[in-house]
Write a structure and sequence with these properties.
By secondary structure, the protein is α+β, with helices and mostly antiparallel strands. It has one domain. About 40% of the residues lie in helices and about 20% in strands. The chain is built from 5 helices and 7 strands. The strands form 3 sheets. The protein has a 3-stranded antiparallel β-sheet, with helices on both faces. A two-stranded antiparallel sheet has the order 1-2. A two-stranded antiparallel sheet has the order 3-4. The protein starts with a strand and ends with a helix.
């Protein structure tokens, strides 16, 4: 099955094959580690004018098919992430809010395509897909903690 990502602010589509992924179905957050997703992230960064030096520790973006009715929510989440001085906590919280506000009701049968990006810690400041299983488990726990603190 092909999935298409529309780069906002430009007129081209990037397509890729649907990957294997790990998903937290309560939030719709999926973690990817394949090369084509690194390329998709580069398109994402260009479409939102994100730079490696931006204050972003995590950035979550759904595919065009998943968020096509939620453009204003995406912009709100992006703005909140970039303007806050504690990006690691806020970007995760705002990204969850972004996904939840899109009213994706059939997440279990048709999960949205979501990319999770972590800022590199090696000093290079590059964005890369998360591919460490231990890191994924910690991130899932962080998501659960944020959700429970909101209740």
């Amino acid at each position: 099955m092909k999935i298409f990502f529309l780069a906002l602010g430009s007129c081209f589509l990037v397509s890729w094959q649907e990957p294997q992924y790990v998903t937290d179905y309560k939030t719709g957050v999926g973690y990817y580690n394949r090369k084509e997703y690194y390329n998709a992230i580069q398109v994402l960064m260009k479409s939102y004018k994100l730079r490696n030096s931006d204050l972003v520790a995590y950035y979550i973006a759904a595919s065009y098919s998943g968020l096509q009715k939620c453009d204003s929510v995406v912009k709100y989440a992006k703005l909140s992430v970039l303007l806050n001085k504690d990006p690691a906590a806020v970007s995760l919280k705002e990204s969850i809010k972004m996904i939840n506000s899109c009213n994706l009701t059939n997440i279990n049968s048709n999960p949205p395509t979501v990319i999770v990006v972590q800022r590199g810690a090696s000093g290079g400041g590059t964005f890369k897909p998360i591919d460490d299983k231990e890191k994924l488990l910690k991130d899932k726990q962080r998501i659960k903690n944020i959700k429970s603190s909101r209740q």
